Amino acid sequence: MELKLNNKVGIVTGATSGMGKAIAEAYHEAGASLILSGRNLERGNQLAAQLENSVFVPGDVNDVDYNQKLVATAMDKFGRLDILSLNAGILGLGNVVDLSVETWRDTIDTNLSSIFYCSKFAIPFLQEGEGGNILINASIAAFKSFPNHPAYCASKAASLGLMKQLAVEYAPKIRVNAICPGPVDTPLIWDSAIAFDQPEEAVENAKNATLLKRLGTPEDIAKLALFLASEDSSWITGSAMTIDGGIINA
Ligand SMILES: NC(=O)c1ccc[n+]([C@@H]2O[C@H](COP(=O)([O-])OP(=O)(O)OC[C@H]3O[C@@H](n4cnc5c(N)ncnc54)[C@H](O)[C@@H]3O)[C@@H](O)[C@H]2O)c1
């Protein structure tokens, strides 16, 4: 494989499962050194052992200091920082009346504020050298509602607002984009299905509702994440790209 991220250093949040893990593996294969962010110690240590030139830094992305530590570790270990793949996310399920204020805040923090925290500390370093790249993992939930997903939909829509703001403020040195996946086969989609009366049927329906009649795989998403982090996409910034088997138009 062509080493499209050779000599680059990246941070991937939510790297211990699902799409984050696939993104970390794709970036590694493309030659990047990585800071792997996640909460699960066993899976994080295992991934760091699997991916040469990577360091697992366990912690909670809602913690402001932890975000600073991710950036500081990249600079200490590798002396530079080029890519942020801000992928960590939660669902925060419940309708507006039943949803606790705590879950609302936790969801907004994880899916939105953590992007601000990590970007805030990383941008001065991303501006150095040839320039940096920020990639936000949003969702088609940024564009449409889903039952019992008010905090999720609101946080994902707001993450696109922040993405555009960052793209405008830090161009031309830093490119900032978002991917908006549809139903992808990760642990999260099964958690999401619980919000529906018939969870198994909900996932099957989501699959059948895609124009391409299949769920996405973490690897489908990682390929787009690699393209957007690499020089192959050097004229793309401020974009929110759906990658959803066409479900948004179904
Ligand atoms: N699976 C889907 O169908 C789908 C669709 C659209 C968007 N997404 C988005 O894709 C991203 C990745 O999700 P996934 O589907 O791979 O699910 P996943 O549950 O496998 O991955 C989410 C990751 O985020 C981490 N995370 C959550 N809260 C955290 C916190 N406070 N601190 C640190 N890490 C935290 C989790 O530990 C996990 O590793 C999420 O932002 C999600 O909203 C998923």
Automatic annotation (TrEMBL):
User: Which InterPro entries does this one have?
Assistant: NAD(P)-bd_dom_sf, Sc_DH/Rdtase_CS, SDR_fam
In terms of domain of life, where is this protein from?
Answer: Bacteria
Q: Which Pfam families match?
A: adh_short_C2 (PF13561)
What does the UniProt keyword field contain? Oxidoreductase
Indicate the family of this protein. Answer: Belongs to the short-chain dehydrogenases/reductases (SDR) family.
| Name assigned to this protein | SDR family oxidoreductase
Identify the species of origin. Answer: Flagellimonas algicola
